Amino acid sequence: SVMIGSFIGGIFIGLVGLQAFVLVGPGLASMSMFISDELPRNFMFAVIGFAISFAVAFAAAFILGKDRKTEETEKEAEPGVFAEKLGADETFKSPV
Fold first, then answer.
1. What residues does each domain of the chain span?
2. One-character DSSP codes across the chain
3. What pTM does this model have?
4. What is the pLDDT of residue 1?
């Protein structure tokens, strides 16, 4: 889902010709690298690209769903099954 969101956001910022003026690490705090006096809409395009990437990644994760292995684990952990594995007369003691 992250790759899908990055791809769609990357298409947008490529089409609008977004320019970065400082080489910094990626992150929300480094959005100031897109501020320019000559290109007043550059920062706005960066924020829109961020929002598009976030929204598409969220939607893709929602559509793709959760991991099926988790559902199988939840079905296996029914009440009584764990007690049979441990034994009826055994007690689990935690060292903490």
1. 1-22+29-68
2. -HHHHHHHHHHHHHHHT----S---SSGGGGGGG--SS-TTHHHHHHHHHHHHHHHHHHHHHHH-S-HHHHHHHHHT-TTHHHHHH-SS-------
3. 0.63
4. 92
